[in-house]
Write the structure tokens for this entry.
Amino acid sequence: MIDMFSYPFMQRAVIVGLLVSLSASLLGVSLVLRRFSMIGDGLSHVGFGALAIASVLSLSPMAVTIPVVVVAAILLLRLSEKSRIGSESMIALISSSSLAIGVMAISYVKGTNTDINNFLFGSLLAVGRSDAVFSIILSSLVLLCYILLYPRLFVITFDQSFSRASGIHTERYSLMLAILSALTIVLGMRMLGSLLISALIIFPPLTAMRVFKTYKAVTISSAVISVVSFMAGISLSYGLGTPVGASIVSVNLIVFMLFSFVRVLLKRG
């Protein structure tokens, strides 16, 4: 562990990864409970397409990806509410189309040094100094917004009819939740990859729900599970030389299985 922190790129990766993991787990509780968990998968694929196009055109990845993914989050939210196709089908259409566009954009540029594996599966070396500073600021902003909006998110997560009757603008806070999720996905995508970043949103809340029942308990335990799993995963990646995204998701899977086993023991008891 001491040796791992002796490298500047690992220090940047750990700081950014902890903030992104924490943000993803907190937002994931509301997304999972509202059955919007697949929006993370859809937005990550949109982000891959935007990253690929930005790389091909030699543009700033963050400057292109953030607005594109935020707009996609707004469109997904609006279309899922009003479209006859259905939210899951709409997310599948947009995510698969974005992934295809990204692959096509990269494959048609001859001689480019773009490594598609870094986009798909992530890379610790992709987190540069400027990206790390920007990610820390934006992640802190996401966490601050979540803390300030916590009471509203709690209400709209469980009872939107009551929220509207109480004068709460549910559409506005749902939109804010989608935008915060989009920002979190973009921040973690370059390190964990577009195929795996959505796991940070899904796994910790589902794992916490195996044992805990109240919203507050699930939120706190989800945050703890996410942070611990990230540190264990990045240590495993550094020690064994495995991809960081896959290592973190594998640890999350193991923790989920452990919590499921604990759930079985509690039921029998």
About this structure: The chain is about 80% helix and 0% strand. The radius of gyration is 18 Å. The chain has a mean pLDDT of 80.
